[in-house]
């Protein structure tokens, strides 16, 4: 049992240290790394307890006579939406009804727990969720005192011969989130103690006693963020497509580099002015999304710079959706959202006059590219 205690304590300490070092990962979802000062909280609560031994159970006493009182102060941190750790300092009064031991016993102690949010882990993370069910597992320590909050053996050393024990703690926390920084909790716990903690001279069949606890209280966030932000991962197909374009452009540049620097005189070619001039700027979107990724903002920026340099130019934004996903009606609406998102970026982020911008959307009725994934796109045309 001592080896188990040491192993569990080491795991809890390692978890607390790693909370500041590793990226948050929860059920396959990667979350942006929070600061070391984020996701801390403090809680204050109180409640009752009942001591469980064969002698207590056999005594002729009502359930109410066996209830003691207790209070607790805790400080904890969530390392991810699923996992957290906390330190609890607690104390209270145990009402004994078994024969041969004092009727009351006070105590002080604490425990370190590893917490697991079942709702987030088995469902999906929602920072605005009201209710969470959180089991915990930990180890701790309790020091027994007499009814006057003094050592039970006043002539002994502080620890030697006194009522004290390591504890093994499990329980369930019902958390009700009022706001991002305020929550209410109802906690049910069970802890295992050394049989000698209550001072009973009677030895039973087991080496351990136990105690059930029930507390309720309030928690407050300790500044900083109290939630997690999912990382927006690029579509791997889109990354591969962009890499293919880069490799193609590199190959074309290499061919141009190998051409001779001079060429024979050629007859002058009269320029041909087209009514519509294509601007080689496109904005690719992730599947089922109308949000412009950070890596695609450069296309919007280049178009805005072109329009600022050419005050008479007007742009037409045509958006599409790929044909292999979604229904025609859904894709038509999605392509409209994509066109409007690009237009809004030009207007709101780069100050382009809305009168110079027109939009159109084709859904999946037209596919400008042979590659299906490339058709999640908005294309700029300049008049």
TrEMBL record:
Q: Which Pfam families match?
A: OmpA
Molecular function (GO) terms for this protein are:
polysaccharide binding; porin activity
Q: Which PROSITE patterns match?
A: OMPA_2
Please give the organism: Fermentimonas caenicola
Gene Ontology terms: cellular component: cell outer membrane
Q: Which UniProt keywords apply?
A: Cell outer membrane, Disulfide bond, Membrane, Pyrrolidone carboxylic acid, Signal, Transmembrane, Transmembrane beta strand
User: What is this protein's record name?
Assistant: Outer membrane protein 40
Stated family? Belongs to the outer membrane OOP (TC 1.B.6) superfamily.
Its membrane topology is listed as: Multi-pass membrane protein
Localization of this protein: Cell outer membrane
Q: Which residues form the signal peptide?
A: 1-19
User: InterPro entries, from UniProt?
Assistant: Bact_OuterMem_StrucFunc, OmpA-like, OmpA-like_sf
Q: Which residues form the OmpA-like domain?
A: 272-383
**What is the stated purpose of this protein?**
May have porin activity and function in peptidoglycan binding.
Q: Which PANTHER family match?
A: LIPOPROTEIN YIAD-RELATED (PTHR30329:SF21), STATOR ELEMENT OF FLAGELLAR MOTOR COMPLEX (PTHR30329)
CDD domains tied to this protein: OmpA_C-like
């Amino acid at each position: 049992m001592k080896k188990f205690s040491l192993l569990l304590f080491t795991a809890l300490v390692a978890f607390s240290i790693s909370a500041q070092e590793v990226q948050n990962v929860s059920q396959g979802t990667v979350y942006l790394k929070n600061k070391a000062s984020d996701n801390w909280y403090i809680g204050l609560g109180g409640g009752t307890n009942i001591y469980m031994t064969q002698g207590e159970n056999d005594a002729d006493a009502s359930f109410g006579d066996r209830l003691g009182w207790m209070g607790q102060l805790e400080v904890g941190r969530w390392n991810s939406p699923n996992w957290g750790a906390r330190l609890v300092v607690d104390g209270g009064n145990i009402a004994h009804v078994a024969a041969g031991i004092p009727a009351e016993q006070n105590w002080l102690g604490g425990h370190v727990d590893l917490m697991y949010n079942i709702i987030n882990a088995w469902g999906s993370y929602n920072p605005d969720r009201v209710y969470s069910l959180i089991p915990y597992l930990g180890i701790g320590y309790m020091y027994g005192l007499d009814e006057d909050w003094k050592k039970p053996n006043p002539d002994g050393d502080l620890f030697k011969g006194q009522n004290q024990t390591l504890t093994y703690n499990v329980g369930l926390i019902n958390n009700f989130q009022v706001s991002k920084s305020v929550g209410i909790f109802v906690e049910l716990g069970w802890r295992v103690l050394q049989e000698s903690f209550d001072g009973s001279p009677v030895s039973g069949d087991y080496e351990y006693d136990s105690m059930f606890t029930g507390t309720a209280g309030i928690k407050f966030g300790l500044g900083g963020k109290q939630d997690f932000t999912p990382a927006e991962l690029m579509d791997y197909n889109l990354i591969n497509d962009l890499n293919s374009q880069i490799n193609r452009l590199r190959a074309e540049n290499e061919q141009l580099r190998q051409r001779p620097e001079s060429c024979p005189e050629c007859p002058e070619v009269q320029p041909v002015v087209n009514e519509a001039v294509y601007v080689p700027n496109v904005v690719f979107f992730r599947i089922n999304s109308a949000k412009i990724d950070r890596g695609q903002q450069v296309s919007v920026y280049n178009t805005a710079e072109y329009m600022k340099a050419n005050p008479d130019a007007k742009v037409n934004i045509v958006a599409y959706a790929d044909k292999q996903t979604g229904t025609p009606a859904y894709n038509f609406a999605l392509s409209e959202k994509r066109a409007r998102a690009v237009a809004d970026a030009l207007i709101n982020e780069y100050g382009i006059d809305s009168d110079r911008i027109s939009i159109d959307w084709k859904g999946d009725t037209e596919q400008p590219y042979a590659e299906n994934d490339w058709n999640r796109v908005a294309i700029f045309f300049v008049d």
